[in-house]
Design brief:
Layout: H1 2-15, H2 19-52, H3 58-67, H4 70-76, H5 84-105, H6 113-131, H7 138-165, H8 185-197, E1 208-210, E2 216-218, H9 219-226, E3 228-233, H10 239-252, E4 260-265, H11 276-288, H12 293-301, E5 305-310, H13 318-332, E6 338-344, E7 356-360, H14 365-374, H15 382-387, H16 391-401, H17 411-429, H18 439-452, H19 461-471, H20 480-483, E8 489-491, E9 495-497, H21 500-514, H22 521-529, H23 534-543, H24 547-560, H25 562-570, H26 584-606, E10 625-633, E11 637-645, E12 652-655, H27 660-674, E13 680-684, H28 685-688, H29 695-712, H30 720-733, H31 742-769
Parallel strand pairs: 3-6, 3-7, 4-5, 5-6, 10-12
Antiparallel strand pairs: 1-2, 1-7, 8-9, 10-11, 11-13
Helix pairs in contact: 2-4, 2-6, 5-6, 5-8, 8-10, 16-17, 18-21, 21-23, 22-24, 23-25, 24-26, 26-29
Length: 770
């Protein structure tokens, strides 16, 4: 009976769609829409619950979303047919701001910020797509398709006109930069978006930057005065943090109120963006619309555009790097340009012109001690202070040293311990038995990912999921940020490591464990030649525990790349825990052999033309053999020196204490006869702590001392090139000499010397006469 009644009612309504019944049909439509909206809101709430109900932050997040009427806001505001793009951008900014406020109110959940933001944006995307889906209505679908086709034709014609006219100025100056709305709400939205996207850490410590000419101050102060700054720094020194801090200072500065800041990661140059101006358009388009190259140039000329370009060293392709250098140098010549660039020191080769170069000041030892004491860490080895001068390493060191482990840490071991601690803490938070977690498997799998995608700026989510589907299904784009409980990964324009050093550590981990060096010498040799892989090699050095394999690696590295070899020894990455297992005699033999090999290889390979100026090469007899002599004293004091001996003797000679005076007397006697200097060195093995000293670093120190002595004594002969340069400089600075050729210069100099000698002679005669 009821079914028949409903059928009759529907037929009646459909056959009599006249004015008396329009209100009733509108009522039914609204009723249907309201039911759909309620259903959608419940669906979104259930989806968020399914994704994070087992997470520690779920209850707080659920309460927070309810208090802020999250579901009603995104559903009720997702329909705006005239301008779908604008409403989607506004809602996206709302979600960014909402997640940021949640973390600020609940800082204990900061490690989950990226995961929370991703979940909220997924909910927004579902709501937006569902509400704006017109496929169920044939008439509307046909209309939308027609409008889309017409819009495409119109846009194509506009593009054609744009290309032909090349933005020729009309009488009305339509395309002038002054007609673009660069003040007010749009600029505020852009700045809010940038500050929310590139957040500044709460533990940020303000530091100074300095230049060779003595200029010194904070990044913001110097940039506001000079407008063009290149900030150079070592890995982990905090360049990106300074760039983000400068962005925040610009966004809140009254002096920059009308300016358009553009923060651009140069890792995306040539990939996500074809050129620099294309990158500018990508950043500002959602807020200011599409702008042309001409307008960008006008914004530069009117000082309304500020470039913050982070990571020149992260442009991996030589072609893209050359293109960027050419492009940036063209605009660096513009007087009104405001530009801030960061780069690693070892990958910058004076590429830019018309820019002020600065470096970041390291943390002082006093600052490091104060920060460590705040975390209840005391009495660390002295070698750590040099490593902890960089903010990233200090942050990692605090995490690793809090475990109270007594093992010595080089740079690589420090990073490994850091990630181990993060993984273990993650399991504790989830109340999972940590013994079920295979730390090696996780590090190896993520390492393989870093190794295979090393040169990519980022990896799309689907490609990321495909990789881990094949290698380890416990990881995906939806949970990767929770694996280590911190933002090791970024989820912006794909997925990638939040710091380049993380990527380099994981790539090194995979390289060491997948390709043993004794079986892959050619592979390692090739990577030692690649500029972008040098920090990976530094990490590799610290991961190799076996002393023989370590020796193979360092001998190869010393012959391929001295700069990276120095970097490895700088942070103690040439050490191994196996050294602790050696007896004092064994260690002394190992120490002296490594010292001898390192020192002689450096001198002969890199200073071969002047090797006779280094100790003990000067005045040597080619029939003799260079040796390193060492002697124990009370089992702790080691005395050693370089000497020349009969070829029949060994390279390393360890002598007894009672023979030391005789050996030294014999060495001094022969040195006087051969007219060469002698240097005898002493080291206290106990006080120096064997596990934290490297004879490789000592060899570098001896080379450095010799070079300083050579320069002080002016023992180097000037090459013909330098002499010609001196002559050219002298002619340029002295007007009477500028037009003289070489023969005329010779005559002039001969006469000049004769005149001086004659005046000197007359002066002497006069002096004697009186």
């Amino acid at each position: 009976m009821i079914e028949n009644f409903i059928s009759i009612l529907i037929n009646f309504i459909s056959n009599r769609l006249e004015k008396p019944y329009e209100k009733f049909t509108a009522f039914l439509s609204k009723k249907k829409q309201a039911t759909k909206m309620r259903k959608l809101k419940r669906q979104l709430a259930l989806q968020i619950k399914d994704k994070c109900q087992n997470e520690v932050y779920y209850n707080a997040l659920d309460k927070y979303l309810s208090e802020n009427d999250f579901y009603n806001r995104i559903v009720d505001n997702s329909y705006c047919f005239p301008d779908l793009v604008s409403i989607k951008i506004s809602l996206s900014n709302y979600v960014d701001s909402l997640s940021q406020r949640f973390i600020s109110q609940n800082p204990q959940y900061a490690p989950h910020q990226s995961r929370i933001l991703m979940i909220l944006k997924e909910a927004l995307q579902i709501a937006f797509n569902d509400i704006n889906d017109y496929r169920e209505d044939n008439s509307i679908r046909a209309g939308v398709n027609f409008l889309s086709q017409e819009h495409a034709l119109i846009y194509e014609k506009l593009e054609s006109l744009y290309d032909k006219s090349n933005l020729i100025e009309t009488n009305e100056h339509i395309n002038d930069a002054s007609n673009i709305n660069i003040t007010g709400e749009n600029i505020i939205k852009l700045k809010t978006y940038l500050c929310n996207t590139y957040t500044l850490k709460s533990n940020y410590i303000s530091r100074n930057i300095f230049s060779d000419d003595g200029a010194k101050g904070t990044t913001a102060t110097l940039f506001f005065n000079q407008n063009k700054i290149l900030l150079l720094g070592e890995p982990g020194s905090g360049k990106t943090i300074e760039a983000i801090n400068l962005l925040h200072e610009i966004c809140k500065s009254d002096a920059y109120r009308e300016c358009i800041p553009v923060f651009f990661r140069l890792a995306e140059y040539g990939k996500g963006s074809e050129n620099l101006f294309d990158g500018v358009r990508t950043v500002v388009a959602p807020f200011l619309g599409k702008i042309s190259d001409k307008i960008i140039l006008e914004l530069i000329e009117t000082r309304k555009l500020v470039f913050i370009l982070d990571g020149f060293d992260e442009i991996t392709s030589k072609e893209y790097k050359s293109r960027f250098v050419s492009e940036i140098n063209r605009i660096l010549g513009m007087t009104n340009l405001r530009c801030f660039i960061t780069s690693r020191i070892n990958q910058y080769h004076s590429n830019f012109c018309n820019i002020n170069q600065y470096e970041l000041e390291d943390f002082s030892q006093g600052e490091i001690i104060r920060i460590l004491h705040n975390h209840n860490i005391y009495n660390i080895p002295d070698i750590y202070y040099d490593l902890f001068k960089k903010p990233l390493f200090l942050e990692i060191g605090i995490k690793a040293l809090s475990s109270k482990s007594n093992q010595p840490y080089n740079k690589s071991i420090l990073f490994k311990e850091y990630f181990n601690q993060l993984l273990l803490e993650r399991e504790k938070m989830k109340e999972v038995d940590a013994s079920d977690i295979n730390l090696y498997e996780i590090l190896f799998c993520v390492g393989k990912f870093a190794f295979e995608f090393f040169d990519d700026a980022s990896v799309p989510n689907d490609k990321f999921d495909e990789f881990f589907y094949k290698n380890n299904r416990q990881f995906s784009s939806s949970n990767i940020c929770d694996v280590f409980r911190v933002d090791v990964f970024n989820l912006q324009n794909g997925i990638w490591f939040s710091h380049k050093q993380f990527k380099e550590f994981f790539a090194a981990y995979y390289l060491v464990h997948q390709y043993p060096i004794e079986l892959n010498v050619n592979l390692y040799s090739s990577y030692m030649s690649y500029e972008n892989w040098q920090e990976v090699m530094v990490f590799v050095a610290g991961m190799i525990e076996n002393l023989e394999q370590q020796k193979t690696f360092f001998e190869l590295l010393l012959n391929k790349n001295l700069q990276t070899y120095i970097e490895c020894t700088k942070y103690g990455n040439d050490l191994s825990n196996q050294l602790l297992k050696l007896t004092l005699t064994e260690y002394t033999q190992y120490y002296l052999c490594t010292l001898y090999d390192s020192y002689t290889t450096i001198v002969r390979k890199y200073f071969n033309n002047i090797k006779f100026l280094f100790e003990p090469m000067c005045g040597t007899n080619t029939n003799q053999k260079l040796c390193l002599v060492g002697c124990f004293d009370n089992s702790t004091e080691l005395t050693y020196w370089f000497d020349w001996k009969d070829p029949s003797q060994g390279t390393i000679l360890i002598i007894e204490k009672d023979r030391i005076n005789d050996e030294q007397s014999d060495m001094k006697r022969r040195a006087i006869k051969e007219r060469r200097n002698i240097v005898i060195r002493h080291i206290n093995l106990e006080k120096s702590n064997l596990s934290r000293n490297s004879s490789r670093s000592l060899a570098l120190q001896i080379v450095r001392d010799n070079l300083i002595d050579i320069c002080k004594r002016k023992l180097l002969k000037e090459s013909d090139y330098i002499l010609c340069e001196r002559l050219y400089s002298m002619k340029k600075d002295n007007k009477p000499l500028r037009d003289l050729d070489v023969s005329q210069l010779f005559e002039w100099s001969s006469k000049y010397i004769s005149d001086i000698l004659q005046r000197t002679s007359l002066t002497s005669d006069v002096t004697v006469f009186f």
